[in-house]
Amino acid sequence: MATLEIHDLHVSVEAENGPREILKGVDLTIKQGETHAVMGPNGSGKSTLAYSLAGHPKYTVTGGTVTLDGEDVLEMSVDERARAGVFLAMQYPVEVPGVSVSNFLRTSATAVRGEAPKLRTWVKEVKSAMEQLQMDPAFAERNVNEGFSGGEKKRHEILQLELLKPKIAILDETDSGLDVDALRIVSEGVNRVRETGEVGTLLITHYTRILRYIKPDFVHVFANGRIVESGGAELADQLENEGYDKYVKGGASA
Amino acid sequence: MAEAQNIPAGSTTAGSIAVAAESTVATRMSAPPSFDVADFPVPHGREEEWRFTPLARLRGLHDGTAVASGEGVKVEVEAPEGVTVETVGRDDERLGKAGTPVDRVAAQAYSSFEKAGVITVAKEAVLTEPIRISVHGQGGVAFGHQVIELGAFAEAVVVLDHTGDAVLAANVDYVLGDGAKLTVVSVQDWDENAVHVAQHNALVGRDASFKSVVVTFGGDVVRIHPRVRYAAPGGEAELFGLYFTDAGQHQEHRLLVDHNTPHCKSNVAYKGALQGQDAHAVWIGDVLIQAAAEGTDTYELNRNLVLTDGARVDSVPNLEIETGEIAGAGHASATGRFDDEQLFYLMARGIPEAEARRLVVRGFFAELVQQIGLPDVQERLLAKIEAELEASV
């Protein structure tokens, strides 16, 4: 069973007046089949956690370990992490002009699976995944994220999640900017992947709204660069009622 | 997230649309067009037409110190039935009909060549095979002139291939009779030390179609100046270009479409990728719509993709309109970086860095390559682009 273990992770970014520490000792273990929601106020470092796990060059790991089934993730390049089974659905997916969605998906699936998917089954696979996400087939011929609406970008991220079948899926504010219909469609996509029982999900969000569609097994409150409280789904209800105030004020001791 | 830096440091992407009573495209040049090199002062580098060009690397083509040597270039022509291939003296009346040299090096070429090539396609001849002109540099200095003339309603494809090492100043005239269709692919696939300066003049007859594809990969300095004029209404010109500028290379494409006649069309699209320290691409796109040229339809576009730090692009579209009675006129220029965020996105989907780069560059050129319409040329270009990318990784 795949397990992602994050231990005492410290991460800095280069700021104008030298490096600034954003993650200040994160501990978290995600097992295949589990769903963890990480919730926290803006600026608490949630997205930094997501991008650090994926290996974005902007973030420097200054301490701690991240392993996937015992393998050192931090030693891997960005593409190696993806091929090892770590997937990041981005909050702000990047436009790649000149590269069509269909070409991108196939190149990516080929890289992650280690061989080119058979054309006939691949076409069917993409078509049915797109139908379930209510995406127009014409979408496949557009350039990656170019001119996509906010909702289209998120559906495209979840389409990739469904096709690439990672061991660990990190969803960075996938709910942001979505109306209720789009949120439902996207959540259903995530749930289809979760129901296989083969993915560990790290759901990063500011709001509890998405948790009505995607039920977490664990909820973690993130404040000031670390997890300050963990609990079950009931913790989300508490946050819904009380907000983050007590964590923001009380958690600034580091 | 870091913001995409769209304009690399030191680049210009200036452009202008001028509505003027008198053309500044002509007056911006330091001397009026002439066949005689003596009519042009030696440029010092601050002239409008020379300000982007590294004169010191022209090996004397601009100041008269370059002298033709025995082993300049070897020219071979392969032509199908129905084509006349001749080598003629300087006094042949068919030379210089499509256009007059507009700068000192073009005039130097015209003043210095000893023999010119004339290729004629008889009227109504429709060629099924391309005419291939191979210009192979032998390491010396050469001056040349080539005329390609199509009779009325003739159709031809010409592939003009430049390889090897040379210091070459040579002009090409394309003369299209009424209703003729000519596609010319000029490939600059020089060795790394070559210097090549050329003015390409096209004179497009009534209802004729001219398609020029300029492809520049090699050389130390390459400066190509395609120019189009229309002899009568109804003509169409498509000018496509593709360049891949590597470290230290200077590749300059200057274009002029002179809409001097009513109801003609032009479409210009040049795309370039740059990589490496001091790779320098220059694109000047001048389109002039004269007062008489009512019903003109024109569009020009330049796109540059900067793959690494240290490269520089100067892209200057100029559209000058002297009549409001036109069908359409527009231009676009953009220089973008293949930035770290794009790379991260593709790599985060398991795609290795080299492949991510290939994917983006191939995508960038694909649409333009498809418009060339010659499968063997397209394949060769794609293979060449792959090779350029291999060399960079």
UniProtKB/TrEMBL annotation, chain A:
State the UniProt keywords alphabetically. Answer: ATP-binding, Nucleotide-binding
Q: Which GO terms describe its molecular function?
A: ATP binding; ATP hydrolysis activity
* InterPro entries recorded: AAA+_ATPase, ABC_transporter-like_ATP-bd, FeS-cluster_ATPase_SufC, P-loop_NTPase
Q: Does the keyword ATP-binding apply?
A: yes
Domain ABC transporter span(s) in chain numbering: 4-249
Task: List the Pfam families.
Answer: ABC_tran
Per the record, the similarity remark reads: Belongs to the ABC transporter superfamily. Ycf16 family.
Name of the molecule in the record: Fe-S cluster assembly ATP-binding protein
The record lists the lineage as: Bacteria, Bacillati, Actinomycetota, Actinomycetes, Kitasatosporales
Automatic annotation (TrEMBL), chain B:
One matching Pfam family is SUFBD_core
Record-given protein name: Fe-S cluster assembly protein SufD
Write out the GO biological process terms: iron-sulfur cluster assembly
Report the superkingdom from the record: Bacteria
Record's InterPro entries?
Fe-S_cluster_assembly_SufBD (IPR055346), SUF_FeS_clus_asmbl_SufBD_core (IPR000825), SUF_FeS_clus_asmbl_SufBD_sf (IPR037284), SUF_FeS_clus_asmbl_SufD (IPR011542)
Give the family per the record: Belongs to the iron-sulfur cluster assembly SufBD family.
Q: To which species is this protein native?
A: Streptomyces nymphaeiformis
PANTHER family, sorted: PROTEIN ABCI7, CHLOROPLASTIC
Q: What are the SUF system FeS cluster assembly SufBD core domain coordinates in residue numbering?
A: 137-364
